[in-house]
Write a structure and sequence with these properties.
The complex is a heterodimer of chains A (about 290) and B (about 475). By secondary structure, chain A is mostly helical. In chain A, about 70% of the residues lie in helices and about 5% in strands. In chain A, helix 2 runs antiparallel to helix 3 and helix 3 packs antiparallel against helix 5. The radius of gyration of chain A is 38 Å and the shape is rod-shaped. The model of chain A has no long low-confidence stretch (mean pLDDT about 90). Helices cover about 60% and strands about 10% of the residues of chain B. In chain B, a hairpin with a 2-residue loop joins strand 2 and strand 3. In chain B, helix 2 packs antiparallel against helix 10. Classes of the chains: A mainly alpha (about 290), B alpha+beta (about 475). The interface between A and B is large, with 64 and 66 residues.
Chain lengths: ~290, ~475
Amino acid sequence: MRVTDKMMFDNAAVHTAQARERLERAVEETSTGKRLHHPADDPAAAGQVSAAKLSFERLDMIRQNAGRATDELQAAHGALQSVSDVLGRARQLAVQLANVTYDGPDRANAATEIDGIFAQVVGVMNAQVGNRRIFGGFQDDAAPFAGSGAYLGDAGVRQIEIAPGVRQNVSVRADVALKGVGGGTDVFATLTALATALRSNDTAGIGAAIGSIDSGLAQVAGALTDASTQVSTLTTAAEVNQMVRDQVTSQISRLADADIVESSTKLALANRALEASMAAAAKGFDLSLVTWLR
Amino acid sequence: MSNLVSLLGNAANGLQVFQAATATASHNMQNANTAGYARQRVDITTQEPEAAQGSWIGRGVLLGGVSQSRDAFLERQIPAALGSAAQFAAESGALLSLGALSPDQVGSLTDAFGKFYSDLRAMSQNPGDPALRTALVGTARNLALSFNRTSTAIEETRSGLDYKIASDVQEINDVAREIADINKRITAARSQGSQPNDLLDQRLRARDRLAQLTGAVAVPDDRGNFNMVLQGGMALVTAGEAATLSTAADVANGGHLTVLVTRIGASVPDSFSSATAFGGELRGILDARDVGLQQALTQLDTMAFDFATTFNTQHRLGFALDGTAGGDFFSVSATAPTAARAIGVAAAITADPGKIAAAAAAITAPGDSTNLLSLIGTEQSVLSGGKDVAGTLSSIISTFGARARSSQAMADQDAAVAAHLDNLRESTSGVSLDEEMVAMTQAQRSFEAVAKIIKVTDDLLRVLMDMK
């Protein structure tokens, strides 16, 4: 092939520019650690990265939500455990003071303690986490129990999403556990009846209250189990989400991030290629008859 | 009959020939880097001999003419290759200039959707929390703004291409008129018996540029004119006449410019011209604007409309913090076109985040997130394209990326073909300084030899003159 001077100069310019462009790409990839800068770099991967990022955000927030809900459920569990404990004390007092060996003043004193237990249960059941009451159902912005023991909340059970389209209960129904809604025992009414029986020295009434307290304790135990099960489900869901989230993170990295070893190798090669291109071009420019025919 | 005086005349002729050879070598060397220049060669022929004393005596050299080195076969292939390379280079350049659909870009739709649904989920855990409600309104506005910005970026890229179209049309008209004008000058020069090599180079350069701009190919006629014909068959240049391109706003295409052709001999432009009538850079720009970018914009509008409609439908089924029925969450256009540009957060929601319809019942229940969970479910709702939010977004990004990558691959491939042909052309027609140095030295030696002949002849004449 006949080679002209213009070809030599043009080709040197083109080849050097191409080598410089490859070097620039290698520098960009190495310095940013990214291999996708435009959807055209890898259209399929760009689409997958978008979907994977949405998936990552979803899994991340589900994990965070599960964490917050777990905190609330653990607070609820603690509150219910306290209720169970004080109801146990009430039962103990009832069993003790149903005995004929105790007299009126003893029972009056016990009634005062039962009043304290009543107030304690109300206080515990009005517990809040952050700015919300955890036992009010959907009515979570005000104390769910009045001083009289009346329930001011509703029957709502809060839910969160633990997987796309899968919902999980994250609250227990205090109206069922404490007020016996749906055919159970009203713990507050039971405590009131017990205090009344104690004050009136009514051993039969005291004995009757023991059965009701047992029913109430069973209701609270059911709520405790419910809360524990929910925590367990959320923990499992959070672990699964964490695992999938890690997989998605590595998928995004695999699709969008540059392989540092490969990029560094590319960079070294591109650098060497540019040097070679410039050296070859410079060498070619020197060889001309114009230099020799003088 | 040959004599010493005619010898002098022959030698003088020879001097002129080798002077011309030196001048041509000089011309070649000076144009070694001129684009489109074809090296020229002095055609030296032997002067017819004359009879003398029963023999034929040579009379030296004659300048046969100055010709160009061109390969007609190559020259026929080059315009199509240039047109194709320019078409895909223009299209890929335009598509690659749009970064708004990159999933890695900060504030991209992918990020905005991710954060929006994240905040929706965060609020579902505590729907009565005013801070979470306010945060959701913020990310919803970001999502709407991201749609707005992406749509605007695509539309601005399309509008930018209108400027390029207008400037290309101007250049096309200039180059077409230049070719028509050169056709006339070449015809005139040839009618006077000369070969206008430099005009031929100039016309070839203009032909190549017109091919790059429009994909037009040259069809030479029997009088040596270049008639430039568009790929749709329409003549852009016929001998000394050129058609004229103009632009007009196309209402059906959002006011973007359409290219109209006023045919040779006509006084008004054709009412319509399709992008397929053209090739080259003009076609590449029109394809990028009306196919690649338009498709992305249409998909984006459809997604914005479908998403907002689906979300609003579910939102209207819920109830606000004060127990009132939910209204629209997003404000959006009545139909899909322009939806991405028009989408926003409904004024009622922006003014009062309590209006987010999280609850499922018409009572004041701040902890009720039943409808909010259904709103989260819209992330998996199938939109009109048969995919959910992530799938639709992924499809828009991939489709656009594939179009840009395909045009980039075609551009690279066609540029390589064009570069190869250009190299072959340069190999045939380009100037080698080595060759020209040799040719010039050769002409110099010949000139010196002929000058010696004159000296010798002069000496011989002096011998004769001195005879007494």
